[in-house]
Amino acid sequence: QFHKYIRTLPYFSCSTVLNRELVNPASMKQALIASARRLPGVNMFEQGHGKLDLIRAYQILNSYKPQASLSPSYIDLTECPYMWPYCSQPIYYGGMPTIVNVTILNGMGVTGRIVDKPIWQPYLPQNGDNIDVAISYSPVLWPWAGYLAVSISVAKKAASWEGIAQGHVMVTVASPAENDSEVGGELTSTVKLPIKVRIVATPPRSKRVLWDQYHNLRYPPGYFPRDNLRMKNDPLDWNGDHIHTNFRDMYQHLRSMGYFVEVLGAPLTCFDASQYGTLLMVDSEEEYFPEEITKLRRDIDNGLSLIIFSDWYNTSVMRKVKFYDENTRQWWMPDTGGANVPALNDLISVWGMAFSDGLYEGDFTLADHDMYYASGCSIARFPEDGIVIAKNLKDQGLEVLKQETAVVEGVPILGLYQTHSEGGGRIALYGDSNCIDDSHRQKDCFWLLDALLQYTSYSMTPPSLSHSHSRVAPPAGAEQPLPQRLEGEG
Fold first, then answer.
1. Which residues cross the membrane (predicted)?
2. Total Cβ atoms within 10 A of residue 302
3. CB-based burial of residue 231 (10 Å sphere; 0-12 exposed, 13-18 middle, 19+ buried)?
4. Three-class SS string for the chain?
């Protein structure tokens, strides 16, 4: 229906609007946005500006004056649910900046420019000086549009302050006038972008969780296969593995438990580890730079903890799930498995840890919770003074490759370890991420994530795990070869 309305509107507006010269792609979009009716209970990424209203759009176009506008027209990080996920967590000093992308629509002409620079003007009576706003923008607007990237962070003086802060960004857009008799030969329009945020005191380190987004990759830049191999009707891992997409339930659970979750969209060398209790790595596909590996080891020695939810990785299975792409007329070989286990092994090898290339699946019970292991790997090596939990699972790799069924006893799937350095952090490994992923989850394991965070953030070892009947001696695995990268395939 939407596309039908979009096709109908140009004919409808151009044939009846009094001044047809004012109708252009930007002015038409401005009219659609200004006339749309917002839907209740739905966030802006799901509904945009709301439900189209063609009659109101026509009325706006009929009295339209060429101007610039912004989409969204304001930033209110306190307005839920429309501004979700921005409104789901207050901001605080030392946190990752909140970045909002704003589109500039220029109804004055196909080309335009931003005059001088956008200006941040804090409202001092409304505590606007408690936030710092940085702006990047497109100096030239073409065709019909440009952008503002607004980065919002809390000023140092508000590290222990709580309240609402407000201000606005002012932008002036100029476009060449079609009629040279216009003053200065240009049309100008000034627009304001109001900003409102909620600030809280900086949370304690133990309550701060950093989600590693930088090392999560998705189709289409490469062929990243699904994490659960049983879901054959959905072969590509295309959700992005982000806390606001297919890990949304997990994110909301962590918020309900009082944790503050931030997203790291840069290499591991680009964050201050002393600010965070736990680094959470889930289903990572990207490689790690040597500098990242070195820094993470130093960070964990200094008190940062690490939780890794891995996934399957097996080169034989990867060859099995390749497919012929009709568009590119090429065979597509996976760039990695469900997760990049060789890269993860490089990251954790200094502590004598490693994941295997085993591929396992099955139901089991852990700490009185029903669990499902969906296409996960096992732990191949772990320090002898660590805690390891093992379960009996099906060999899914054998099933995929040879259509045979076999049960493997004592598959190590969970490991907990306290590093030896004074004041050092803790490490927890689990071989499957599907139980915290919304995409194909059958049984959630948020309780396990809670238990692991109690261990990593507060050094509280869950008795249900340390005294579990499923606890086994950590695997040395010295004689077992570790998975290697798939080279020379294409």
1. none
2. 14
3. middle
4. CHHHHHHHHHHHHHHHCCCHHHCCHHHHHHHHHHHCECCCCCCHHHHCCCECCHHHHHHHHHCCCCCEEEECCCEECCCCCCCCCHHHCCECCCCCCEEEEEEEEECCCCCEEECCCCEEEECHHHCHHHEEEEEEECCEECCCEEEEEEEEEECHHHCCCCEEEEEEEEEEEEEECCCCCCHHHEEEEEEEEEEEEEECCCCCHHHEEEEECCCCCCCCCCCCECCCCCCCCCCECCCCCCCCCCCHHHHHHHHHCCCEEEEECCCHHHCCHHHCCEEEEECCCCCCCHHHHHHHHHHHHCCCEEEEECCCCCHHHHHHCCEEECCCCEEECCCCCCCCHHHHHHHHHHHCCEECCCCEEEEEEECCEEEEEEEECCEEECCCCCEEEEEEEEEHHHHHHHCCCCEEEEEEEEEEEECCCCCCCEEEEECCCHHHCCCCCCCCCHHHHHHHHHHHHHCCCCHHHHCCCCEECCCCCCCCCCCCCCCCCC
Cβ pair 393, 408 in contact under 8 A: yes
The token duo for 256 is 């309900």
**CA-to-CA separations, 315 to 128, 340, 487, in angstroms, rounded:** 55, 11, 10
Among candidates 170, 180, 177, 240, which has minimal Cα distance to 211? 240
Residue 217 is predicted with a pLDDT of: 73
At 216 the pLDDT is 82
Q: Show Cβ contacts of residue 227 under 8 Å, excluding neighbours closer than 6 positions.
A: 237, 283, 311, 312, 338, 339, 374, 375, 433, 434, 437, 439, 440
Query: In this structure, are residues 358 and 313 in contact, taking their beta carbons and an 8 Å threshold?
Result: no
Angle between helical axes of 54-62 and 25-35 (0-180°, round to 10): 130
The pLDDT score that the predictor gives to residue 314 is 87
Q: What CA–CA distance (Å, rounded) separates 279 from 430? A: 14
Walk along the chain (490 residues) in steps of 10 and give the mean pLDDT of each run. Answer: 48 56 91 95 93 93 94 96 95 96 96 95 97 97 96 97 98 85 76 98 97 81 56 54 88 97 96 97 92 97 97 85 68 76 96 94 94 93 96 89 89 96 96 88 92 96 92 85 73
Q: What is the 3-state secondary structure (H, E, C) of 310-330?
A: CCCCCHHHHHHCCEEECCCCE
Give the model's pLDDT for residue 13: 47
The pLDDT assigned to 338 comes to 82
Q: What do you get for the CA distance between the two ends of the chain, in Å? A: 42
The residue type of 185 is: G
